[in-house]
Amino acid sequence: MSWTTEHEIAWNETNPFRKFLGVSVSFVDGGVAEVTLPVHDQLLQAYGMVHGGIYCVLIDTVLGSAVRGVCGFDSKPLTVDLNVSFLRPSGQGVLTARAEIIKPGRKVLVGNADVMDEQGRKVATGRGSFLLNTPA
Q1: pLDDT (tens digit, 9 = 90+) per residue, 69-82?
Q2: Treating both helix axes as pointing N-terminal to C-terminal, what angle do 52-71 and 5-13 enclose, rounded to 10 degrees?
Q3: Under the phi-then-psi rule, with left for phi > 0, alpha for psi from -120 to 50, and beta for the rest, what region is 72?
Q4: Among residues of the chain, what percentage have pLDDT more than 70?
Q5: Is 0.85 topped by the overall pTM?
Q6: Residue burial 6-45, b: 16+ Cβ < 10 Å; e: rest
Q7: For residues 112 and 126, is the Cβ–Cβ distance under 8 A?
Q8: Which of 93, 91, 97 is nearest to 124 (CA)?
Q9: Alpha-carbon distance 5 to 24, whole Å?
Q10: Which has the closest alpha carbon to 7: 28, 34, 30?
Q11: Which of 55, 75, 101, 115 shows its CA 20 to 30 Å from the CA of 89?
């Protein structure tokens, strides 16, 4: 069975960390995925900008969704490498993260992701590698 947007939305509802942050799944289509996150005060650092760790979380999260879009739920992907570049600060509004798997290997998948602010400006970009943690 292929992993669809509906599967990812249902799975998202059972993920305590995603629910705590307020992450919503927009779509999953094969190795491409998109999630959104409304920014609230608890996600801001002392200068009133989104904390950089939130960009990292969004990149990791949307890449995980894209991996499941390729491999399905039972793959249980684990992040083994994550590189994030911060491009510009952002404040209140909705952040959108989009990912694409660029190397769908048998055991390790690699993907790229971008985070955009509400005006569509790219605020962060990253790449991640994911190990499939399937039963032996």
Answers
A1: 999 878 889 999 99
A2: 130
A3: left
A4: 97
A5: yes
A6: ebbeebbeeeeebeebebbbbebeebbbbbbbebeeebbe
A7: yes
A8: 97
A9: 11
A10: 28
A11: 101
